[in-house]
């Protein structure tokens, strides 16, 4: 069954659809991201990783999830 | 004089060689090169996670940040705002305050944009970051960075990744004379002798990425760089002889037949 009222968000430049009231924690879990190895920005604001279960995502939210890669 | 290691932002590091983690064929090759190099500090970059490939290997799976100091950089940043955003994110990943600031001004020569670099150094220092600064080899700018709160001055030897070696020894020597801050050559090393020369000029350390990662045998080059840095430092501390235009025989003429 198709869930109605899905909302669009952007994660690392890619569009995603989520159900309303989806939390940032649910998103990180869905993406299988190890919390201790990433940092998260929501609409250009850095998010305290201890608070992600309290943050509900809204239509048009832009999320950036970053980690360390090789560099000089 | 014996080498007791060097201090950056009140922390003592044994190895004077800092190694970059970019451009390797694989994470395992990178990890092996770092181990062979003996480096205590490695530079890392902050980038988006690939959300479509969740199982992709991560740098942190291969290089343990508990055993080796990660030095987050701002590679690819062209403004103070970009650099600050990147380093705030780096700090959030794991609490890092010691960072390498690199604000570029030109995509081709990769030279540092010094006005933005200076501004970023001031802002980041105010936020509590310990900023090691990639800069040009201008003694006046180096002084201004020092006054702005930099914890290490990191002039280029030549353009990043060029492998051209130290192009302006005089400027490096002048910067050495004027600062007590750690002085680290940050870019342009091509071969082991370049690293030795940097150390013989009195630098406290050398940061190398491409010269190791893109060598035909990166692991062996990592060892060569390790030895070159140790050798150059010992040479510097030993006090070289004065150069002389004419010869001075090593064998006495006394008792000659």
Q: Can you give keywords for this protein?
A:
heterodimer, A: 72 residues, mainly beta, Ubiquitin-like (UB roll), 5-stranded mixed beta sheet, 1 helix, 10% helix, 35% strand, globular, B: 257 residues, alpha/beta, TIM Barrel, 5-stranded parallel beta sheet, 9 helices
Task: Please specify the SSE layout and strand pairing.
The complex is a heterodimer of chains A (72) and B (257).
Chain A: E1 7-11, E2 14-18, H1 24-30, E3 39-42, E4 45-46, E5 62-70
Chain B: E1 6-8, E2 11-13, E3 17-20, H1 27-37, E4 41-48, H2 59-62, E5 69-72, H3 80-94, E6 98-101, H4 114-126, E7 130-135, H5 139-148, E8 152-155, H6 169-178, E9 184-185, H7 192-200, E10 205-208, H8 210-213, H9 218-238
Parallel strand pairs in B: 3-4, 3-10, 4-5, 6-7, 7-8, 9-10
Antiparallel strand pairs in B: 1-2
Helix pairs in contact in B: 1-9, 3-4, 4-5, 7-9
How would you portray this structure in words?
The complex is a heterodimer of chains A (72) and B (257). Chain A has a five-stranded mixed sheet with strand order 2-1-5-3-4, with no helix packed on it. With 72 residues, chain A is mostly beta strands. In chain B, the strands form three sheets. In chain B, strands 5-4-3-10-9 form a five-stranded parallel sheet. A three-stranded parallel sheet of chain B has the order 6-7-8, with helices on one face. The longest helix of chain B is centred in the C-terminal third of the chain and has 21 residues. The N and C termini of chain B lie far apart (41 Å). Chain B is an alpha/beta fold. Chains A and B meet through strand 3 and strand 5 of A and strand 4 and helix 3 of B.
């Amino acid at each position: 069954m198709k869930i109605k009222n899905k909302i669009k968000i952007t994660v690392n430049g890619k569009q995603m659809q989520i159900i309303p009231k989806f939390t940032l924690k649910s998103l990180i879990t869905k993406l299988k991201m190890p919390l201790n190895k990433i940092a998260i920005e929501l609409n250009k604001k850095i998010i305290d990783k201890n608070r992600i279960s309290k943050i509900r995502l809204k239509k048009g939210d832009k999320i950036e999830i970053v980690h360390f890669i090789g560099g000089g | 004089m014996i080498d007791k290691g060097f201090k950056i932002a009140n922390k003592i590091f044994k190895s004077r060689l800092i190694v970059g983690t970019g451009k390797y064929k694989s994470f395992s090759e990178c990890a092996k090169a770092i181990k062979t190099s003996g480096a205590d500090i490695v530079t890392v970059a902050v980038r988006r996670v690939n959300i479509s490939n969740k199982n992709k290997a991560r740098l942190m799976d291969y290089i343990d940040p508990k055993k080796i100091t990660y030095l987050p950089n701002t590679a690819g940043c062209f403004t103070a705002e970009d650099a600050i955003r990147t380093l705030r994110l780096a700090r959030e990943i794991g609490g890092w305050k010691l960072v390498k600031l690199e604000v570029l001004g030109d995509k081709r020569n990769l030279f540092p944009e010094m006005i933005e670099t200076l501004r970023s150094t001031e802002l980041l220092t105010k936020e509590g970051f310990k900023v090691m600064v990639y800069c040009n080899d201008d003694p006046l700018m180096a002084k201004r960075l020092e006054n702005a709160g930099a914890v290490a001055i990191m002039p280029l030897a030549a353009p990043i990744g060029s492998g051209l070696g130290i192009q302006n020894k005089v400027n490096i020597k002048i910067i050495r004379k004027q600062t007590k801050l750690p002085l680290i050559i940050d870019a342009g090393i091509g071969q082991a002798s370049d690293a030795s020369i940097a150390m013989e000029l009195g630098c406290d350390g050398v940061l190398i990425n491409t010269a190791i990662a893109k060598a035909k045998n990166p692991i062996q080059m990592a060892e060569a760089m390790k030895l070159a840095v140790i050798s150059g430092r010992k040479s510097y501390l030993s006090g070289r002889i004065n150069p002389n235009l004419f010869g001075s025989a090593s064998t006495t003429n006394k008792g000659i037949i």
